Amino acid sequence: MSENKKALVFVGMAGAGKTVCVDYLKSKGLPSVYFGGIVLQEVLDRGLDWNEYNEKIVREDLRKKDGNGALAIRIIKQIEDFFEKNKEIVVVDGLYSWTEYNIFKEIFGDKAIIIAVVAPRSIRHKRLSTRSVRSYNEEDASLRDYNEIVGLEKGGPIANADYYLANDMSKESLINDLKRLLERLKIKI
């Protein structure tokens, strides 16, 4: 793999701000892959309605059959396709499990740059309660946190991230921090 090729892999709890970062990078023309897109495609391939319930069933089924790395294994092919098309940087939206983290580090080594977007629980839950799509009340947000931390071991990838972006202020502040990180990594967009 070329020295310049990198996968910017975003991880964080729901409401932390991963989508803000990913959307910014996509708006600058960087290609991206989305873990949730793997699940969505499988939902549609199975002829199911696209809703949160069916997504959860499919996501859990994929992981039950192929292990917690099931989505990573599938999405790595998409990343490699972009690399083959001479794309130097690929944005990866939504790393979840410790197994996925290990797969990315095994396949890409230091070319997989794990970036954790973090925010205090109270701020994340407030954001989740006001989202126009998939809003959560406090109880549902807490349950989702628990399922991601315990069921998917999401704390491992966050704790072992290569870089952190704190998102406890404004979107503009988060984007400015992301820009500074890209400069530090010598990534021009």
Q: What is the typical, i.e. mean, pLDDT?
A: 93
CATH class: Alpha Beta
Which word captures the global form? globular
Distance between the first and last residues' Cα? 20 Å
Strands, count: 5
Radius of gyration: 16 Å
- The secondary structure category is alpha/beta
Strand order of the largest sheet: 2-3-1-4-5
DSSP summary: helix tally: 9
* Level-2 CATH architecture: 3-Layer(aba) Sandwich
- Under CATH, the topology is which? Rossmann fold
Describe this structure in words.
The protein has helices at residues 18-27, 35-45, 52-66, 70-84, 98-108, 121-130, 138-151, 155-159, 171-184, and strands at residues 6-11, 32-34, 89-95, 112-118, 163-166. It contains nine helices and five strands. Helix 4 runs parallel beside helix 5 (98-108). By secondary structure, it is α/β, with parallel strands linked by helices.
